[in-house]
Recover the amino acids of this structure.
């Protein structure tokens, strides 16, 4: 679902273990966010729920960590 083919290839070829390098975890989380943000179905669900995604950068307190 990612438009960035190089990133998609990298993520697809990650080993399937429960121990991943920090960079791999960060990239997986970023890819998940990208996929959700690009999903028309997810955007429709947000609109129907009257919700919005709040960027982590705008959070303060324990939730931002």
């Amino acid at each position: 679902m990612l438009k960035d083919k190089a990133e998609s290839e990298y993520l697809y070829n990650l080993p399937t273990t429960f121990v991943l390098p920090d960079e791999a975890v960060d990239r997986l989380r970023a890819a998940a966010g990208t996929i959700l943000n690009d999903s028309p179905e997810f955007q429709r669900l947000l609109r129907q729920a009257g919700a919005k995604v709040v960027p982590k950068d705008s959070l303060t307190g324990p939730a931002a960590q």
In short: The chain has three helices and no strands.
